[in-house]
Amino acid sequence: MTGSRPHDAVMERVMTPDRPPMWLVWATGALGLAVLGMAVAETNLWIHYLIDGGEYVSLAGLVFILGAGVALYARQRLLVSLPLSLPWLLFPVITQGDQLIDNLSITWMRIIVHVLLAAIFATPVFLVVLGARYGLAPSGAPRRPGLLLRLIPGLAPMAEGRVREGSAYLATFLFLLLTWVAVQFLGQLMVITLIVMGWAALVWGSGQDAPAGSGRRRSERFALVLLVAGVVVSFGLYIGYKNRPGAYQGSPAYYMDPAQQDSGFRLDRVPVPPAAPTVPAEAAGVETALTTYARAFERLLGGYYILDRNYNYDFHNRLFLRSTPLLANYRSVGLTRVGEAERLHQEAEGAFVAVRATLAPGDPLAALLDDVRAYADFNFGRAPTLERMSGGFEQTQAGLQHATHLFEGEGKVFSERLGELLDKHAGVLGAPTLQPVVGEFTRIGREVQGTYADRIVGF
User: Fold this and answer.
1) 181 and 43 co-located in one domain
2) Residue 358: helix, strand or coil by DSSP?
3) Are residues 317 and 401 both part of a single domain?
4) Closest C-alpha among 83, 107, 112 to residue 25
5) How many domains does the chain have?
6) What are the 10-residue block averages of pLDDT along the chain, 459 residues in total?
7) Are residues 80 and 21 in the same domain?
8) Label partner for 228 (CA 20 to 30 A): which of 118, 155, 160, 293?
């Protein structure tokens, strides 16, 4: 029995595959492509929702990879599968990307972002190379590669038995292809990062292939320790940054600051009377007041949108060293729109004063006017604060991200609350006899509501 142990150890290495299971390869490949898509396609609405809900997906991924790791350890296949755990461990951290770089200098932002992007871009490359190695590496005598294999760098050396060299060539070729993605969606720094990654792959490929199966039993236990530690660190970083105290993304914009959630506009201050709506005696004056308020809202949000988008492009131009065209003097243009909106607001106030006394206290139309006026006063009262805060943020390159999130958060909640206000007064706004009075206000209001309806704050 004792003399059979070396033979058993040899048979164990032979029967234990030196490759991860295909189900894990496919699952990691799907995750890698999804994360790459989230990293470079933020302008797509469905990608927005995937990123926004990605926190819960990422936590489920942690549970999945931990369970998979334990199962693979029991089958002595964890060591060869361990590199596939990296995307699963990174995903929860990536979902907290904004918090991760919040309040850092632009230099540190660039470093952290491009380290994360390097891992994201490397994942599909690693999986393609892994698949090629398993599909082409000879199990016996090396074979002569055909013409098709010679057309793609790296495949021919793999087929001939030079697996490490071929893997390096193929990885470098794939990094070269990914530079197109970097140029289209990111910028010069990501192109440089991919060049460095290709160089590193070539340096690695100049070494010798390691003998298969060496130190398997001892390394399997160490691999399990690494995986468990990685899960703990990933979850810890996720919890730490998600619940990070202090200023975040342009606070104290009340939409973004959890400590100020109660400082927003209250829709319950003006009750809706139960009486049926009737045509007012001063129908033209009421229509003028409501329509002017609506145009003031439209112009105000238009100014916020200019500032939000251009601050966003400006920040990402600095972060990635790219050159997305900006509106010339965009801050001045946006604030000019806000100033025009304030003048319309004052005109609407004059029209309101002229007609409000003509409406009875229990008139639903009077309640609508009171709500609209209060909403206008609330938001135009905030405008000078936003101008002052954004002016302070833009003093540094890193602060541009706070400026964009400031106006983005304000724009989002402004349009959402306006939609809620319109829904609250649906009885008046939907009355057929009042359409000449409220029709234009409703049309403009719904258009304003739609400006940020398909936007998730942070993109």
Assistant:
1) yes
2) coil
3) yes
4) 83
5) 2
6) 44 54 85 75 52 72 89 86 85 75 82 88 87 73 69 83 87 93 88 94 80 59 89 86 57 52 78 86 92 96 92 90 87 96 96 90 91 94 89 88 86 90 93 93 93 64
7) yes
8) 118
Q: Has residue 251 been placed in a domain?
A: no
Question: Is residue 56 within a helix (H) or strand (E), and if so which, with residue range?
Answer: helix 54-74
| Within-domain flag for 247 | no
Burial tier of 364 (Cβ tally within 10 Å: 0-12, 13-18, 19+)? buried
CA distance 138 to 160: 7
pTM of this prediction? 0.78
At 365 the pLDDT is 92
User: Is residue 435 included in any domain, yes or no?
Assistant: yes
Distance between CA atoms of 52 and 8, rounded to whole angstroms? 51
Question: Is residue 97 classed exposed, middle or buried when 0-12, 13-18 and 19+ CB atoms within 10 A define those classes?
Answer: middle
Residues 98 and 32 in one domain: yes
Same domain, 224 and 345: no
Q: Answer whether 106's CB lies under 8 Å from 396's CB.
A: yes
Whether 381 and 417 map to the same domain: the answer is: yes
Rounded-to-integer distance, Cα 449 and Cα 282, Å: 28
Helix (H) and strand (E) counts for the chain?
A: 19, 0
118 assigned to some structural domain: yes
Q: What is the pLDDT of residue 9?
A: 42
- Distance from C-alpha of 337 to C-alpha of 389, rounded to nearest angstrom: 17
Q: Which pair of structure tokens corresponds to residue 317?
A: 């131009």
- Domain boundary (242, 274, 304) is at 242
What is the C-alpha separation between 399 and 389, in angstroms, rounded?
10
| pLDDT recorded at residue 191 | 94
DSSP string covering 371-399: HHHHHHHHHHHHHHHHHHHHHHHTTSTTT
Who contacts 137 (Cβ-Cβ below 8 Å, separation ≥6)?
158, 159, 161, 163
Q: Distance between CA atoms of 436 and 429, rounded to whole angstroms?
A: 10
Q: In this structure, are 90 and 225 located in the same domain? A: yes
Domain region containing 378: 258-451
